[in-house]
Amino acid sequence: MSRLVVVSNRIADPRKTAAGGLAVALGQALEASGGLWFGWSGQIAENGTPGEGDMNRQQAGKVQLVTVDLSREDHDSYYLNYSNGVLWPVFHYRLDLADFDSGGVAGYRRVNQMFAHKLKSLLKPDDIIWVHDYHLIPLAAELRAAGCQQRIGFFLHIPLPPPLILAALPEHDWLMRSLFAYDLVGFQSETDVAHFARYAATEMQAKPVGEHGWQAFGSTVQARAFPIGIDVDEFQSMLKGKEAVDMQAQLKREYVRRRLLVGVERLDYSKGLPQRLKAFRQLLRNYPENHGSATLIQIASPSRESVDAYAALRAELDSLSGAINSEHGEMDWMPVRYIHRNVARKRLPGLFRAASVALVTPLRDGMNLVAKEYVASQNPDDPGVLVLSRFAGAAEQMPEALLVNPFDTARTAETIQRALQMPLPERQQRHQALLARIRTHDVHWWREAFLAALKQTPEDTA
Ligand code: GDG
Fold first, then answer.
1. What angle do CA 112, 132, 72 make, to 5 degrees?
2. One of 133, 365, 431, 442 is an active-site residue; which one?
3. Which residues contact 289 (CB under 8 A, 6 or more apart)?
């Protein structure tokens, strides 16, 4: 059996409960087969030389973890300026927030080259390599240039925008061309695959080959959708844990006469937080029966605090939540509890279970795991309602949620009201359909489907 090698910007010890969706999903993937996980250590070597970094090795159960430190200059250009300052906003359709003049692309390329050289020295001939996310798009091209012939797959966790948005990236040709060094490129949704196909056909004159293949630059890449899932069983077993039970009991006690709504995400402009608060304010203005009752608990865990756009967003949210509370709050009721802190993962299922409605309303999102975690946490006999943005990848798989356009404040407020008033049989019916789907397409399905497709990619004969 081939060894699995996973490469991602950040890695996590699979034996520890990690915070983010990606870390959790990958940890579970590697635990199952054993293998090597390679990535940045999270450490910055202040006096390090650009393009160089020490390798650290650690054994975590069946998984070997190998990480590389980054020099300050590499960290700033590869991670802050290009990955998070250019690729993240462009891929989330936010050309207005991309800093195209930061010059980060040189560092992005340098770090990918360095990772490829370090990784090459660790590889065995029949390894299967699975590269993750936008930080590492050119990695396979660098590995191929260094002589690697192993099968290499890539999974993009964030959306792929349409060709005309991608074309705003000064180096879009180089970046998209480098995807052809992979045997398989996986996307979250059919929408993303369609964007890739259109780009390949119109910008690269690539030829379609078979059901999923595209041929250009002397190689063929398969492009397919593999919507990522969660570990439903693990999430439901956390629901029985002390932390979740206590969380749920405490909220039930505090909010016995009230209706709880919940939102949980990293503080990020893609997640539509100001729009959500405005829709909630509209709900309180339009439907006064919610006064003294509807309470939104909004967790926005700190993320990328050193990127400018995030500081502005933080200030906007502080001010909006304060304004809603001062406009509508009463001595014994504050409509918004906005918390800019990380909540322990084991408490989340209890928080989700206590809430009658979840607001998952990103402006654009690759998938969105919170939508799935909320559904997994519900009591099937008395489930809550998921209000989900049509712009989340999850919307393709979860049509039984109440789908909204988060830019449309009035309609979103109306839909939240509908969620709060939905009769039990309808809630049960919708929840049953959603739960069945996230169970079938869970994180194990995702891993197995991607790896099976990677193993079946044809030998490149182009
Ligand atoms: C990227 C893509 C795609 C959030 N706040 C806290 C916390 N979380 C957890 C959630 C969930 C995870 O973080 C977030 O996952 P998402 O999928 O919602 O979003 P991104 O972080 O943007 O992830 C996304 C994902 O990759 C996987 O492919 O779905 O589209 O953008 O698990 O529960 N966890 C804890 N405390 C918090 O305060 N412990």
1. 40
2. 365
3. none
Following CA atoms 200, 203, 206, 207 in sequence, which dihedral angle do they give, to the nearest 10 degrees?
Answer: 90
User: H or E element: which one contains 207?
Assistant: strand 207-209
Q: Is 192 in the pocket of ligand 1 (CB under 6 A)?
A: no
Looking at the CA of residue 365, tell me the nearest atom of ligand 1.
30
* 136 CB near ligand 1 (under 6 Å): no
* Ligand 1 pocket, residue 274 CB under 6 Å: no
- Name the segment(s) of the chain with CATH classification 3.40.50.2000: 4-229+443-455, 232-439
How far, in Å, from the CA of 451 to the mean position of ligand 1? 22
Selecting among 132, 135, 157, 328, the annotated active-site residue is 157
Residue nearest to atom 33 of ligand 1 (CA): 370
Q: What is the rounded CA–CA span in Å between residue 311 and residue 365?
A: 20
Q: What is the dihedral of CA 38, 43, 48, 54, to 10 degrees?
A: -40
pLDDT digit string, tens, across residues 314-349: 999 999 999 999 999 999 999 999 999 999 999 999
Closest to 371 (Cα-Cα) out of 270, 228, 260: 228
pTM above 0.90, yes or no: yes
pLDDT tens sequence across 392-446: 999 999 999 999 999 999 999 999 999 999 999 999 999 999 999 999 999 889 9
Residue 151 Cβ contacting ligand 1 at under 6 Å: no
Cα–Cα nearest to 361, from 338, 383, 386, 339: 386
* Whole-number Å distance between alpha carbons of 182 and 153: 6
Rounded Cα distance between 141 and 112, Å, is: 9
Rounded CA-CA distance 24/271 in Å is 20
Q: Is 157 a catalytic residue?
A: yes
Q: What is the DSSP letter of 95?
A: G
Q: Which atom of ligand 1 is nearest to the CA of 371?
A: 18
460 is catalytic: no
Three-state DSSP at 434 gives helix
The architecture in CATH of the region 4-229+443-455 reads 3-Layer(aba) Sandwich (3.40)
For ligand 1, the distance from its centroid to the CA atom of residue 146, given in whole angstroms, is 34
- The fold adopted by the segment(s) 232-439 is Rossmann fold (3.40.50)
Q: Tokens 């595209």 map to which residue?
A: 214
CA 291–ligand 1 middle distance (angstroms)? 31
